[in-house]
Amino acid sequence: MTNLQKEDFSKWYIQTIQQADLMDYSPVRGCIIFKPDSYEIWEHIQEEFNRRFKKEGIRNAYFPMLIPESFFTKEADHIEGFAPELPWVTEAAGEILEERLALRPTSETMIGTAFSDWINSYRDLPYEINQWANVFRWEKKTLPFLRTSEFLWQEGHTAHETESEARRRTLRMLTIYKEVVEELLAVPVYEGQKTPSERFAGAVDTFSIESMMKDGKAVQAGTSHYMGTKFAQAFDIKFLNRDNEHVFAHTTSWGVSTRLIGALIMTHGDEQGLVLPPRVAPTQVVLIPVGPWKKNPEIVERLAAIQKELLAKDVRVKLDDTDNSPGYKFNEWELKGVPLRIEFGPRDMENNQVMTKLRDQSEKVAVKLDDLEDYIFTQLDLMQGRLLESAKEMNRANEYTNIDTLEELKAHIEAKKEEGEVPGWVLAGWDGTEESEAKIKEETGFTTRNIPYAPPVLKSKCIVTGEKAKHTVWLARAY
Amino acid sequence: MTNLQKEDFSKWYIQTIQQADLMDYSPVRGCIIFKPDSYEIWEHIQEEFNRRFKKEGIRNAYFPMLIPESFFTKEADHIEGFAPELPWVTEAAGEILEERLALRPTSETMIGTAFSDWINSYRDLPYEINQWANVFRWEKKTLPFLRTSEFLWQEGHTAHETESEARRRTLRMLTIYKEVVEELLAVPVYEGQKTPSERFAGAVDTFSIESMMKDGKAVQAGTSHYMGTKFAQAFDIKFLNRDNEHVFAHTTSWGVSTRLIGALIMTHGDEQGLVLPPRVAPTQVVLIPVGPWKKNPEIVERLAAIQKELLAKDVRVKLDDTDNSPGYKFNEWELKGVPLRIEFGPRDMENNQVMTKLRDQSEKVAVKLDDLEDYIFTQLDLMQGRLLESAKEMNRANEYTNIDTLEELKAHIEAKKEEGEVPGWVLAGWDGTEESEAKIKEETGFTTRNIPYAPPVLKSKCIVTGEKAKHTVWLARAY
């Protein structure tokens, strides 16, 4: 056991995701290969969101990836926000294109243009769709899963008759994000509103769920935007309302991406490697023959029978009967974060039992073969809940709510550094000005994460100016 | 009822897919928007293939979309085949790239590079993965679903120890394609081997399933390629074999795309619009209140109750209680190809029954409410099988096996044209030369579709030269 996670979190992260066979680098700058285990985590995330979206009456669709340059220039804030990161197709089939085509960074412009054609009357509203797609943002600094030039995501886009209905949709999606990220990934989140400087390019209001990693840094895990009628005006999304007037629709958009995989790893991983919540683990249970098992073929036969029974009940279970030593196998499957290991050898067979070990527990437990199936279902459920609870505890231990000035914040960061501890998140008063926000970032590297719906404490004074605080905000370093 | 399908099949196709709300054009040349109904058909196709791939032990992964130019030049035939259709990213984030990046037309080069790193020993083999992705081919002539600049597909890539194992995988995937296309889409296919001139760029052997559309033209519905060690040599995919020698792996690739949606429509659609096989129909059953239903709220309540029960049994069912007239609704849902319509009005309520109409049958049938659920499941199953059978009949009626010379073929095409009938497919002898193949195409517009595994007749003489035939091939016009 090393102390790498504690000593050099970044190195631990890169080493873990590579050793656990989740990803590989690509020769193209900032692009990664999602190997089968990370892609399967993404598929479980997709399944759960698809189930929830369907319940909401939101349907999937697919829009072209290439977006003409002229589309972007229609909404001024939008182009300003995305232009610096766009890759461009300028040639195709041996010819220079008349107009450059951007690789989509997000699809508001493409879908806005379509909505303009499709929406004519209040009877067409709400119009609510979602897209699963690859998107591109050519960023300077990249990090596997968390910030890559190409990533996978879902982007929902809706149009509504009224502001209140659009705002309800915006907030409803944030709630769904919170539920799925907490229940499926066991990653606790902080819901709140983004400050104006951190809004999505072109949005009226942006809401986010933010999560705290084990190194105390924040990951923006999902965002939901209320666009007002800004995009409707830019793309001419007008409809005949109930009073027979042509008016602009109110639109929203919302997304989560493959960065959730990064957040999952940085929330639960430990010095031994990944720790995967059972609901998204590609392998939930691994069966390993132990002792002098090769002399008795019945050992592997019994394990194969257990595997078959579990597969029939939709448990994702592997049998590792390779030639490697049990110790090697234990390490490898721990590194991969498999929730439950089951060992079975000649002595266990005599006793009609198996030895079990949960990834987040240190003791092994003997379980009678007759009780095994119940034990597995119960323990996987318990572990799912336990991971969420221990992440919440980790979060609480790293929340600081009694820091009132920039000097105190700087001293806090310094002190934690000296102790070899993470600086965590700091709840602060903010006067609502961009100047104060910029000063916090400049002097501490902390940025406003969001304005929480329900802050644990209401801060009355701005951490920068000492003036009356307009909002209470979470401050943290962020990925 | 019009005769548009018979008189102008292309116009019928474009009009039908637009009116049925399956797609819309995009401002970018040759790109289309997959609206929710067509995207859902694709999702059902994906589900079924994922289920089958998983059974085969093939896992999903995701590789970067952008491919450096230098990758393509490694396999000479491959670059020659794809270069004319590639779109290129030349700038990103305000800078000109040092090396152009292609938008993937297929991922052999990217995945070959990865396999080279990942595969070291025979113990790593077989390495079998699949990717669901968007791909780009900038073609001159495009047609929604069947040939678009951007399309969606799956591409499987495998590496093996031996030729025989790789060839078994190649043919096994073709069998899976045949089964899924016939059982799920009810589109009968013709299995066979492509001629050398129609092979995938860089393959040793290409196999295809081809299907016949109602206008007698062919759609290549899926392909599977055995690459030999050509890509392994180009990308250095070497492994230590059981004799402790470094040798090249044998690779395969195989794919189906969203053109299956086009094939589905052109196989089953009729003058009234789409006809969708129940297993892939986004809406399988539509409930429509009829008669003076608005005066009696119980009508819609009862329909809502039926809907709820069916939804609970995973039937995809809609209730249309809009203000449109029943006649309007009947037409609209027929146009959309919904397999089963259920009408229910005050008189039906008195008789404790509903009136039902299957999309491919002309009579309405009264069904007692108590029997409805059974009726629905039985009839949807029967319809699924009936569609496959009637497509097979259509195929057989348009197969010609008694044409022996090019003159006869030209006369056949001319005669069919005069009769206003489709020229169909022609089974012909071929001497195996490129010259003969080119001549057929030049003089008749027919191309070799494939060399069937089991031709209905073996042709002994080449249709062009009259010499001894090397193969019996299917000839047809193709999309």
Q: State the shape of chain A.
A: globular
Structure class of chain A: alpha+beta
Give the number of DSSP strands of chain A.
24
> What characterizes the major β-sheet of chain A?
8 strands, mixed
Oligomer: homodimer
Distance between the termini of chain A: 27 Å
Helix content of chain A: 25-40%
Q: Give the helix tally of chain A.
A: 15
Largest interface: A-B, 52 and 52 residues
Enzyme class (chains A, B): ligase
Catalytic activity (chains A, B): tRNA(Pro) + L-proline + ATP = L-prolyl-tRNA(Pro) + AMP + diphosphate
Function (chains A, B): Catalyzes the attachment of proline to tRNA(Pro) in a two-step reaction: proline is first activated by ATP to form Pro-AMP and then transferred to the acceptor end of tRNA(Pro).
Keywords (chains A, B): Aminoacyl-tRNA synthetase, ATP-binding, Cytoplasm, Ligase, Nucleotide-binding, Protein biosynthesis
Helices and strands, with pairings:
The structure is a homodimer of 479-residue chains.
Chain A: H1 4-7, H2 9-19, E1 23-25, E2 32-34, H3 36-55, E3 59-60, E4 66-68, H4 69-72, H5 76-82, E5 87-92, E6 95-103, H6 108-118, E7 127-136, E8 150-160, H7 163-185, E9 190-193, E10 205-212, E11 218-226, H8 230-235, E12 238-240, E13 246-248, E14 250-257, H9 259-268, E15 285-289, H10 297-312, E16 317-319, H11 326-335, E17 340-344, H12 346-351, E18 353-358, E19 364-368, H13 372-397, E20 399-400, H14 406-419, E21 425-430, H15 434-444, E22 447-448, E23 451-452, E24 471-476
Parallel strand pairs in A: 3-7, 15-16, 15-17, 20-21
Antiparallel strand pairs in A: 1-2, 4-6, 5-6, 7-8, 8-14, 9-10, 9-23, 10-11, 11-14, 12-13, 17-18, 18-19, 21-24, 22-24
Helix pairs in contact in A: 3-7
Keywords (chains A, B): Aminoacyl-tRNA synthetase, ATP-binding, Cytoplasm, Ligase, Nucleotide-binding, Protein biosynthesis
Subunit structure (chains A, B): Homodimer.
Domain Aminoacyl-transfer RNA synthetases class-II family profile (chains A, B): 36-277
